[in-house]
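User: I need a structural model of Endopeptidase from Brevundimonas nasdae for a docking pre-check later this week. Nothing fancy, just the predicted structure tokens so I can convert them on my end. Input:
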Amino acid sequence: MQFPRLPDWAIYGAVAAVFLAVSLGRRENADAPPVAEAGADVAEGALLGPITPFDAAVTVDAGEAPFKPSSGTAFSIAGRGRWVTARHVVEGCRKPALVVGEGRAVAADVRLAPRADVALLITDGGPAALPVAVEAPLRKGQRAFHPGFPQGRPGEVTSRLLGRETLKVFGRGARDEPVLSWAEVGRTNGLEGTLSGLSGAPALDAQGRVVGVTIAEAPRRGRIYTTAPETFGPAIRGEQTPADDARGQTITTEDYGQVSNRLRRDLRVAQVVCLSV
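Assistant: Understood. Predicted structure tokens for Endopeptidase:
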């Protein structure tokens, strides 16, 4: 018996459908909350090497316009009132403040790091510090969690480490800065569009330790950029004391929404605003 020959378009369509199904099945989905839909974590890759002149570059145009008030995220690194945010969030702001409640904010003094997109905010006292692990080895593929205030509202993102890049900033504050590049693999359910407002958020490893500061995004590429240990470490050197040597909380794709909520509730992660003078 001879079976009828299928037309070419039917064969090509079936092959394309198989490839599409395999591609979608492999894409990670770690949105939160309430519960992430991702499966078991994939194994982490090779150790991340040192900075080299051959690292890929990404360009950011900061423009020449004067500072425009905006909001961002900060996190506590010392209980005596030391916070870290991204420098571009507060650079040029005459009166930065940390939101501590509905309609309430605490003014902060600012120290700008000279060689990194990092700023230190100083207040009279503060919440318990997040542990910082700038010397911890990093591996390609390892996960990070970014709790903060994207679009001015509570939210969080999770990502995986891709490697090193050089951030080339033109315009106001022009500089070349080594950064870490991360692929976004999940975010708060319902959060669409830009992550503006997440700048300054901590990048936490699976042990709840800060490994960098969130400073930029490339939405079309699905990339998030954080400070590199070589610039973040010197920017906060001496600010944490043995009394601030707190343990981090283990974070997974299933609970990073809840962990992020607790950090915001305890003000260990807070929103930064620029008050009108």
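Before docking, keep this in mind: The chain has one domain: 1-277.
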